[in-house]
């Protein structure tokens, strides 16, 4: 079940959902608009020959802060990390999805590549995976409405909500555009034998 505007307002007022700072007119019929922060994590292509998902790669991205009143130029085919200006906090019985704004999608801006899901219990800024699929650069202005949260009720509270420690919560409390921490996952060791071929 997707929460309606009236329910969203009620939950915001009671503190069950936190979206801070909440922009003027942010509550839409079934979502909450969020704005773009001024920091971007830009991939430093000159430092590494490839991205190794199993390795901690310090300096894989550089943090860029856009001066007040200036735009960030997102070039065609470019991928950077951004963040919501708003911090979000969810209770243990609600999840959220972050989606783009229709008007920006029509200009070629993608605000998340696949990771649009926000778990029950999450608290922090939400990292945006920004891509430009248009043929011209897009100017992104900090503070502009860039995305929207829709909220969904669980059938019952999560037994191990995000941030509880048992759920492997690598991004709880994150601030600003946060680079991947995938290397913290339990993966097959580098020296493990290759799996045998299945019989024909």
Q: What is the makeup of the main sheet? A: 6 strands, antiparallel
Q: Please compute the radius of gyration using only Cα atoms.
A: 19 Å
Count of DSSP H/I helices = 2
Report strand %: 25-35%
Descriptive overview:
The strands form three sheets. Strands 1, 3, 4, 6, 8 and 10 form a six-stranded antiparallel β-sheet that branches. Mean pLDDT is 90; it is low at 194-200. The chain has two helices and twelve strands, in the order H-E-E-E-E-E-E-E-H-E-E-E-E-E. It has one domain (5-45, 58-156): Deoxyuridine triphosphatase (dUTPase) (Deoxyuridine 5'-Triphosphate Nucleotidohydrolase, Chain A). It has 200 residues and is mostly beta strands.
Brief summary:
The chain contains 2 helices and 12 strands, in the order αβββββββαβββββ. The chain has 200 residues and is mainly beta. The chain has one domain: Deoxyuridine triphosphatase (dUTPase) (Deoxyuridine 5'-Triphosphate Nucleotidohydrolase, Chain A).
Descriptive key words:
200 residues, mainly beta, Deoxyuridine 5'-Triphosphate Nucleotidohydrolase, Chain A, 4-stranded antiparallel β-sheet, 12 strands, 32% strand, globular
